C-alpha cells in the first residue's frame, strides 16, 4: 500500500500527474483541485495517495491533502460511485462544501459535478449523511476541512478510529489551538481524542 508520494512533479495532464520519486515516474490520477494545488512542474510535490486494485489494473489516485483523500474513500463506498465520479465531485466541490451539501441534504450541489445525475446525487447525500453528521459546518469549516502536516495526519487517525469527518476536524483544530502549530502528531491525536469524547 502506498500512502503518499514525495518527489518532483514531472508533468500533469487533464486528470493526472506524474511524480518522479528517485527516478521512478508514478502516474497518479487526480482531481482538478489537486492538480491546481500541487504546484509547478519541476518543483517538489507531495501527494496523499489511494491505491485502487482490480483484476485488470492497479491505479494510484493522488490528493493534495488528507481530507480530500478521506472524502474520496467515503464517496467510492457509495454504490455507483467509482474513482472517476468521485474525482469529478472533488473537482467541483471542496471537502467543506461537500460536507455542508451532505449535512443539509443538498442534492443539487452534489449534482453540479460532471457525471453525477439527480438519482446518484440523492444516493450520495442519503448514504453519507450518517457518516458525515447532520450538523452543517460553521464559518471555521474551511480552515478545519483542509488541515496540513501533523493536523492532517491527526484528522486521518481519528477518521480511521470511526469519527465523522466534521467531528475529527473540529477535535483536531481544538487540540492544535491549545498545543500550538509545533505540536507532535502523537500529542495532537491524544488531545483530540480527549476533546472528541467529551
Automatic annotation (TrEMBL):
<dbReference type="InterPro" id="IPR036267">
    <property type="entry name" value="RuvA_C_sf"/>
</dbReference>
<feature type="region of interest" description="Domain I">
    <location>
        <begin position="1"/>
        <end position="64"/>
    </location>
</feature>
<comment type="subunit">
    <text>Homotetramer. Forms an RuvA(8)-RuvB(12)-Holliday junction (HJ) complex. HJ DNA is sandwiched between 2 RuvA tetramers; dsDNA enters through RuvA and exits via RuvB. An RuvB hexamer assembles on each DNA strand where it exits the tetramer. Each RuvB hexamer is contacted by two RuvA subunits (via domain III) on 2 adjacent RuvB subunits; this complex drives branch migration. In the full resolvosome a probable DNA-RuvA(4)-RuvB(12)-RuvC(2) complex forms which resolves the HJ.</text>
</comment>
<dbReference type="InterPro" id="IPR000085">
    <property type="entry name" value="RuvA"/>
</dbReference>
<dbReference type="InterPro" id="IPR003583">
    <property type="entry name" value="Hlx-hairpin-Hlx_DNA-bd_motif"/>
</dbReference>
<feature type="region of interest" description="Domain III">
    <location>
        <begin position="152"/>
        <end position="198"/>
    </location>
</feature>
<keyword id="KW-0963">Cytoplasm</keyword>
<keyword id="KW-0227">DNA damage</keyword>
<feature type="domain" description="Helix-hairpin-helix DNA-binding motif class 1">
    <location>
        <begin position="108"/>
        <end position="127"/>
    </location>
</feature>
<comment type="similarity">
    <text>Belongs to the RuvA family.</text>
</comment>
<keyword id="KW-0238">DNA-binding</keyword>
<dbReference type="Pfam" id="PF14520">
    <property type="entry name" value="HHH_5"/>
</dbReference>
<keyword id="KW-0234">DNA repair</keyword>
<comment type="function">
    <text>The RuvA-RuvB-RuvC complex processes Holliday junction (HJ) DNA during genetic recombination and DNA repair, while the RuvA-RuvB complex plays an important role in the rescue of blocked DNA replication forks via replication fork reversal (RFR). RuvA specifically binds to HJ cruciform DNA, conferring on it an open structure. The RuvB hexamer acts as an ATP-dependent pump, pulling dsDNA into and through the RuvAB complex. HJ branch migration allows RuvC to scan DNA until it finds its consensus sequence, where it cleaves and resolves the cruciform DNA.</text>
</comment>
<dbReference type="InterPro" id="IPR010994">
    <property type="entry name" value="RuvA_2-like"/>
</dbReference>
<dbReference type="Pfam" id="PF01330">
    <property type="entry name" value="RuvA_N"/>
</dbReference>
<keyword id="KW-0233">DNA recombination</keyword>
<dbReference type="Pfam" id="PF07499">
    <property type="entry name" value="RuvA_C"/>
</dbReference>
<dbReference type="InterPro" id="IPR012340">
    <property type="entry name" value="NA-bd_OB-fold"/>
</dbReference>
<dbReference type="InterPro" id="IPR013849">
    <property type="entry name" value="DNA_helicase_Holl-junc_RuvA_I"/>
</dbReference>
<dbReference type="InterPro" id="IPR011114">
    <property type="entry name" value="RuvA_C"/>
</dbReference>
<feature type="domain" description="Helix-hairpin-helix DNA-binding motif class 1">
    <location>
        <begin position="73"/>
        <end position="92"/>
    </location>
</feature>
<protein>
    <recommendedName>
        <fullName>Holliday junction branch migration complex subunit RuvA</fullName>
    </recommendedName>
</protein>
